[in-house]
């Protein structure tokens, strides 16, 4: 299968590209910069130059593909306006790729976060939030899944708050970065809130399985660790960096403060059983031991 991928040079995307190539697929990747283009070509992928906002490039890549995996996002959380712009760009790109696939039964795999449900771990059956700071992403995902009624084998892989590899990535990576900046390995509230996690190499396997096998209109959870207490994550980060570990105000984490403070465990029992997905790489707490000093 020729697979068009957006976000193929990132932490998750680079792992997905390697997983696809190692399992007999060819990859055509959207490349926004010279450095991304070079990295993707070195990995063995062909490229289409352009960013997610370049709808002509996005349509061109999808038109040449037997399937799509969408991973790109601006990840600009510096202001509500910047976040809204990134969400709008992503929604337009997904709509453009979806239109290319209507009536073809080709797979279109998109990405979102796992939902959070008060008092328990979220499951694949729980709806995504459609309101709040990232509600627009949820609406884009639902619109993509609705393409199942128009002959697109659409599916969504819901990612936990931390996708990690070699001690870096995701929300835990942000905790580490903020600890380096402030001199304190901090956590919001009492630190008992739980974050799910997955190793990037395990997530890559799931993206391939969903691309190859998932029925249209379905959602899956790329969760290996159901939920680690943020205080425990901060403790490992503090020990590795030689910094004090203590509670800090939610404002320390900027626009993400309210999300950082939320208890949001998640389960992937249905995904593991149905798709025979078995995470095999180190847990987040184990991987944080690899933080670069």
TrEMBL record:
Pfam families: Epimerase. GO terms for molecular function: aldehyde dehydrogenase (NAD+) activity. One of its GO terms (cellular component) is cytoplasm. Signal peptide: none annotated. SUPFAM superfamilies: NAD(P)-binding Rossmann-fold domains (SSF51735). Residues 3-74 form the NAD-dependent epimerase/dehydratase domain. This is Nucleoside-diphosphate-sugar epimerase. It comes from Kribbella kalugense. The lineage of its organism: Bacteria, Bacillati, Actinomycetota, Actinomycetes, Propionibacteriales.
